[in-house]
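Expect chain and fold; see below:
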Amino acid sequence: MSRDILSSIHLRRTDENSADIDAAVGRLGRRVGLAGVLAHLNRQAERTRVPGRAVEWGFRWCDSDEHTAGWWPQGITTSADASAVEHIEGRRLLMTSWYSRKVDGLSRGSRISVVDVDTLEYRHVLLVVPGRNADGEPELRPLLVHAGGLAWCGPYLHVAGTRRGLSSCLVDDLIRVDSTEDTFGYRYVLPVRFSYDAATTDGMERMRYSFLSLDRSSDPPQLVAGEYGVDDMTRRLARFSLDPETHHLAAHADGTSRPVWLDERGLGHMQGAAIVGDTYYVTSSRGPRRLGRMYVGEPGSFRSFPRALPVGPEDISYWPSTDMLWSLSEHPGRRYVFAMRRSRFHR
């Protein structure tokens, strides 16, 4: 990929809205961090058999989450992304994202679920944008993005926002609100601290940030992003370097973050991509009734594994110490979170 093309796609980090977050905390609740949520997990998933030739084990959500038409699971990341020791607060954790479809003309934005892998207890947290209302008082608005991917990098949770770029949250900012009247009944909310706005130059189509993962095998670590595409849509895969000290995207002198690698040879119906060494593991959906597919290899040279995944697979994440790939599926009544042993794709 030429340097000109790499330079034409970029992300620009916005200022941190710490003042609005502090104001919201002061007026609407209190900052409790991840420990506050973990102390009050209030839903129970259950281990179950998951369809798909490559699946090692998995679980399903509680009945109300399994069947709701209002919320759709999308992204996944783990405490193995967030920390080299692979646990947080002594627990092995998953985070998944969901986006809201309109109900009675209203979208509730997006949310994450914090899941204890060992107990399968979990809780939903609403993603919000802090700001001020017409009277200048602090308010929290829902984050209106598809949330197709997640990457938990140190203290930050990056959320894919398709053409908007990325929304970034500091996990320590988790707030327990005093009143749930304006948060759709959610007691815990996570505010966006800053964003990475997507932009382009030279007439190139703006990149769609459909999914995310973290590649810890590179030095420094890299954020992996890609595009869902069909027909003549672009299907690009990109990698951005992370600053190991700040966990922000590495930036150039002009303040922009540009890919260190970009390839236009992605696949149709890509829903997620994780990298281990030089090998890509790409999930691909096949509609609402057909089992999903995994592609393994490099752009331009992928091997297909049909019927490897359940119906409607989405984002994907890698857990190094267990050598497991984690993913999830989206369709009501067929919603699973599941692990695959990576060695199954290399026999």
User: Anything to note?
Assistant: The mean pLDDT is 95. The radius of gyration is 19 Å. Residues 18-28 form the longest helix (11 residues).
